[in-house]
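= Tokenised fold =
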Amino acid sequence: MNNISNDFCDASARQPRPTAVWKDALLLVAERVGRQLYWNSRLLRSWARRWCAGGKPAPQVVEREQLKQYLRRIGVREGALVMAHTSVTGLQLTDREHPEQVRGFATVAAQLIKDLQELVGPTGTLVMPAHAVYQQQNEYGWPTDRDVKYDPQRTPCCVGFANELFWRQKGVLRSLHPHNSLAACGPLAEELLQNNLNEHKPLPHGVDSGYYRFCQKDGLVISIGVPLGRYLTLIHVAEEVRDQQWPIPDFFVERRYIVRIDGQDQPWTVRQHRSEYGKFSICMRKLCRDLRAEGILHEGMVGSVRVDWVRAGEVFDYMMSRNKNSSYPYYWPWLVNRTE
């Protein structure tokens, strides 16, 4: 276990110094300006995508049993409620009994899902994001058609191959809400996903969502092979629970979907936040720095594999506290030019 490292630090020991406050403020401004430049420049976005695709990701290698021991240590154990974010690109698993490595993203994804299900056992519930991918979508990945078709039994997801394999497994339920859907398997699956699509034009992370119920049950959120700060969808629960009390005017927009339920196409109207705020105004790096400083976001390494985790209840409570009288983590939202 000597090659396992993490930053499980006591928040009380992290008192910000004046220089740290100024540095944080400068980083915040840089992030906000950087977002503005990036999303306003097609050339810059094109260059960034080519640069990211230009090289192969560094391989991440870990022994399966070592990874499972670490996951048990942070709470992925029998009877647990766990949400997993994964990336199997470049991920390689080794086994003590079989010296050959488990390679290939499909094989690694299947093995990773199997290990997670074994860890939580038949009394635990495993949850994975299953955000739908649509044919007609904007540069931010959101649908552009007025009537978008969503079939929870067929529409593929856009959040990784392991997630795609998971939601297609027998016994796994997928939420009917067409935006940022969830997939769940276990005793709590039906309770988490019930009535998430209804006549009240529900928000994807609001009071009717599986994300909110997951927070209320203080589930464990983990990421394997990718920084959790990039994919922590739970940060949107607090703003959507506030709903009409959220301070940014016109933050939410209605969208019409055609959802296939029990073999029948049905029209539904739901709400979601405008994509412009996610492009220009949200400051994720600032949020991650705050979560780390509060001892909420934990970052670790097992072998050469990134493994991060948070408790959903702590994230929700922190976000509700921070945005009580503000639009945190959205900065200067009045500068956003809404086009939808």
